[in-house]
Amino acid sequence: MTLKARAREKVERAGISNYSFDQDVLVMCGVRYTIAACDCGEPECDGVRLEKDAAVASRMLQ
Ligand SMILES: [Zn+2]
Question: Residues with Cβ within 5 Å of ion ligand 1?
Answer without folding.
Answer: 38, 40, 45
